[in-house]
Design brief:
The chain has 28 helices and 31 strands. The protein is an alpha+beta fold. An eight-stranded mixed sheet has the order 6-5-9-3-2-12-15-14, with no helix packed on it. The chain has a five-stranded mixed sheet with strand order 17-18-19-21-20, with helices on one face. A four-stranded antiparallel sheet has the order 10-11-16-13, with no helix packed on it. It is globular, with a radius of gyration of 28 Å. The two termini are about 25 Å apart. About 50% of the residues are buried. Bound molecules: arginine and zinc ion (ZN). Zinc ion (ZN) binds next to α4.
């Protein structure tokens, strides 16, 4: 029996097999007698037969055994089919009552009801509700919830659930109870409750139509002072969604709870968002500027789900990008509106390229609307989220902002209260926005990053731009159809630095098309895919001189950044091939950017950064991690030396500032640490002292961690002292200690792998906390040279962690598998080691389907 379970491949769920539910559950009442070791859950379901059939009611469960089952008040025998409870019912409508016992304290998967730091909380998306009680656990079954909780008053003084509070009281024996009701029908993945000793940062927001909403951000008392930034972001988000999308909040209360143990970022449960504490807690001493931005972005994301996800939810999990792609696009727009839109776009594209492009070109590639899965948790991917957002962004570009808004209004009006599909969204875009998106729909069905080759010819006063597109083969999709690619394009005059025409939105729809530009009297320089208007790679063949020119003169900030990146990439790729590169063009371009007074510092800080080693690797057929590292470090050194005066000026210029959270101050800090890194790369004798002075003098975590990173990458005597000081100062703050692990995991030194192996044995390393696992193991997989050490010890380290973690937390374990799936891109020796590592995972007895799916597909 055990063997059969270990070897039988998990069932594959297919999109084409979708059938509407056999039974609906318009109302559910839940009664929780909460206890960390034994919680009694009593549920009362009003069930209604859906359509004309005689199939029984099948309630999903996961590890549950009924304590009692009653149908219309009469106790009944029960039957389990696997994990599901099968209830034959004679009529069209019945009341089904089930009681079960669960043990939150023993729930290490962090799905369902679990304990974290003394509190009890839930995570149900995607299929965690079935670990709490028996239920048709699918997003197209929408119910009105009423929830009663009873618990020990001292241990769990605060009791929260979805919707609005309706009553509370004393239960005697030191216990108390509370009742909450959510008037909006919702799928069970949006159910939530929290019980614990929490305090709230309270505020309020008055909506567009004048309704007052009570806001609460709930944390442990010690963290209360770190919640103001999240509260500010929440109120800004509420106002922004009214102004930009006409979306108003709909309950009397909105609560957020921060928990320390969480499998991902945060969860949009109706009226009760639950967050990984790293996306709530922020103060200058413990959070970097990037952390502040992430807090605001995730608070906005979860809040925006109230409409894009909750009021309109997904019919089935193949439609996940309906809510995630759209909501990521919305949170990106929000963040762009708060500060520098250009820098935000650069960051979003960097994320897409680092996380989604490799996925799209590897064995786990899937369209934003997948066709099949074994475990849906594995499909909360950069493709569904980030490429999904790019697809919405392209529709926004094609329709323009006004027609896009008309289309989203129509979408929300048409599908409010429903479980919708991606197709419903596209139809709303067509009907409300007045466009034909027939061919555009291929973005939902075809995986792979399209490649565009651009050729620009000039003769007389005519320029001809010929564009060819191809979508590479991906697993299960050998042949691809041409896509609709919206490419914002402009031509510049390389001599006078002026534009030669207005910007055009080119729609490339054929495999090959030529676009004509008239009245072009001088040799044009091509600026294409401006703002990264399509998530594609574009080969332009522009030479170093043209790229340097655009990096200094393009009027689209993203295109400027992109030209610089391309110049750097070309230089590095050539250096890897030839052993030694010509760094002159990059140095001059960086010098120009650094000395341009019109540029904002945050932009400069981004523009002068070299592409990551992993991204350089993405450009090559066979990745040579050591050669890439050498080439990149050599370019860093030359940039550091050639521009040492400029770097010192940039570093000193931001020196005396006192902490302030504003776009200008953030930009200054960004550039300051980038400059420090280059001063160190130059090998300056005083670099370590400069870094140490920044480290000890910092009044904020951005400067402190930036300095620590510089020291950690070097070999001065101050290195150990800084690591030790940082550790001692923050050993009781888990989120900051995560940074201590990550900084070492990302070290550029030769001994990074040895350091990581030692840190795995550190008393503060634990598999029980997902943030800590990601801080060490997850971060290390991004250290291309360290992780891909030729002897395979990096792979061995990762496999050990995956296998051990899988026994307690399959979801988080499965997230660590994909880096091993890049084996096709490496030399034969490494590829063999990587495949052996995947093989060791797949052959582990008792593997979860989460990890099995990722590892077996990665071998593919
Ligand atoms: N819906 C949540 C969000 O986008 C994430 C849920 C992730 N669930 C999962 N099984 N990975 O914020
Ligand atoms: Zn989301």
């Amino acid at each position: 029996m055990l063997d059969a379970q270990a070897t039988a491949a998990p069932a594959v769920i297919r999109r084409e097999d979708y059938r509407p539910p056999d039974w609906l559950v318009p109302d559910i009442a839940l009664d929780f007698r909460l206890d960390s070791m034994r919680t009694r859950v009593a549920s009362r379901l009003q069930v209604v037969r859906n359509g004309d059939h005689d199939r029984p009611l099948v309630l999903d469960g996961d590890g549950l055994t009924p304590v009692a089952l009653r149908i219309d008040g009469v106790a009944t025998d029960w039957r389990l089919d696997g994990d599901a409870l099968v209830v034959p019912l004679p009529g069209g409508a019945h009341v089904v009552e089930v009681e079960v016992d669960i043990a939150p304290e023993l729930n290490t998967q962090l799905m369902g009801l679990y304990a974290s730091g003394g509190l009890l909380c839930t995570q149900c998306e995607a299929e965690g509700f079935r670990r709490i009680t028996f239920f048709p656990d699918r997003p197209d079954v929408l119910s009105r919830y009423s929830v009663r909780m009873e618990a020990d008053k001292a241990r769990y003084p605060v009791l929260l659930a979805n919707g609005d509070p309706v009553a509370a009281g004393d239960a005697g024996d030191g216990r108390h109870w509370a009742e909450w009701r959510d008037p909006f029908p919702k799928p069970c993945y949006l159910f939530a409750l929290v019980a614990g000793d929490l305090v709230a940062n309270r505020d309020s927001f008055t909506t567009l139509s004048g309704r007052k909403v009570d806001l609460g951000i709930w944390v442990r008392a010690a963290d209360l002072s770190k919640t103001d930034h999240a509260m500010t972001a929440l109120k800004l988000s509420m106002a922004w969604d009214e102004a930009v999308y006409g979306r108003e909040y709909d309950l009397d209360v909105f609560n957020i709870v921060a928990v320390a143990d969480f499998n991902f970022g945060a969860m949009e449960n109706k009226g009760l968002n639950i967050f990984n504490s790293r996306y709530i807690l922020a103060d200058p001493d413990t959070a970097t500027d990037a952390d502040y931005d992430a807090v605001a972005g995730v608070v906005a994301h979860e809040y925006f789900h109230n409409w894009s996800g909750n009021r309109v939810t997904c019919r089935d999990w193949f439609q996940l990008s309906l809510k995630e792609g759209f909501t990521v696009f919305r949170d990106q727009q929000f963040s762009a509106d708060q500060g520098s839109a250009a820098v935000k776009r650069i960051e979003d594209v960097r994320t897409l390229r680092a996380a989604q492009f490799p996925e799209d070109s590897g064995p786990l590639a899937h369209p934003i609307r997948p066709e099949s899965y074994m475990e849906i948790s594995n499909f909360y991917t950069a493709t569904i989220y980030n490429k999904g957002a790019e697809v919405i962004r392209m529709m926004h570009a094609i329709l323009g902002p006004e027609r896009f808004r008309a289309a989203t209004d129509l979408y929300f009006a048409r599908h409010d209260g429903e479980a919708a599909t991606c197709e419903d969204f596209v139809v709303a875009m067509e009907d409300g926005g007045g466009a034909d998106l027939t061919q555009f729909r291929r973005w939902y069905s075809q995986a792979g990053t399209p490649r565009v080759v651009a050729t620009l010819d000039h003769e007389g006063t005519t320029a001809r731009l010929t564009l060819e597109q191809a979508v590479p083969a991906t697993p299960g999709q050998p042949d691809k159809q041409p896509m609709v690619l919206p490419l914002r394009t402009r031509l510049f005059c390389g001599e006078t630095s002026g534009p030669l025409c207005d910007e055009r939105l080119i729609l490339l729809t054929e495999p090959r098309q030529t676009f004509v530009f008239d009245d072009i009297a001088t040799r044009p320089v091509l600026s294409i895919n401006r703002g990264f208007s399509a998530p594609v790679t574009v080969e332009t063949g522009r030479d170093a001189a043209d790229l340097a020119f655009l990096s200094a003169h393009d009027d689209d900030p993203f295109a400027r950044y992109e030209a610089m990146q391309q110049l750097m990439l070309d230089t590095l790729v050539a250096a890897v091939a030839e052993g030694r590169g010509d760094h002159g063009a990059v140095i001059e371009a960086v010098r120009n950017t650094l000395s341009d007074p019109a540029l904002d510092k945050a932009f400069v800080g981004e523009a002068v950064l070299l592409p990551s080693e992993a991204f350089v690797g993405e450009q090559m057929l066979v990745v040579d991690p050591d050669a890439i590292h050498r080439a990149r470090e050599a370019l860093r050194t030359d940039l550091g030396k050639a521009l040492e005066g400029e770097w010192r000026a940039a570093h000193a210029g931001a020196q005396a500032n006192r902490f302030e959270y504003s776009p200008a101050a953030k930009g200054a800090r960004r550039l300051k640490t980038v400059a420090l890194g280059y001063i160190a790369a130059a090998g300056a004798a005083d670099a370590a002292e400069l870094a140490h002075a920044q480290f000890t003098g910092a009044d904020n975590m951005t400067d402190r961690q930036g300095a620590l990173t510089t020291l950690v990458n070097g070999d001065s005597a101050l290195r150990e002292a800084a690591l030790e000081a940082f550790y001692r100062r923050y050993r009781d703050n888990a989120l900051v200690l995560d940074k201590w692990f990550t900084t070492q995991a990302l070290s550029t030194r030769d001994d990074a792998l040895d350091a990581v192996l030692a840190l795995e044995k550190h008393p503060d390393f634990t598999l029980a906390n997902p943030n800590r696992v990601r801080a060490l193991a997850g971060a290390f997989t991004a250290n291309q040279r360290g992780f891909h050490a030729a002897d395979g010890r990096g792979y061995g380290f990762l496999v050990d962690i995956i296998v051990a973690l899988d026994r307690i937390n399959p979801q988080t374990a499965a997230k660590l598998v994909p880096p091993l799936g890049r084996w096709r891109r490496f030399d034969e020796a490494r590829a063999t080691l990587m495949r052996a590592a995947l093989g060791r995972i797949v052959e582990t007895p008792g593997l979860s389907k989460d990890v099995f799916e990722q590892a077996s597909k990665s071998l593919g």
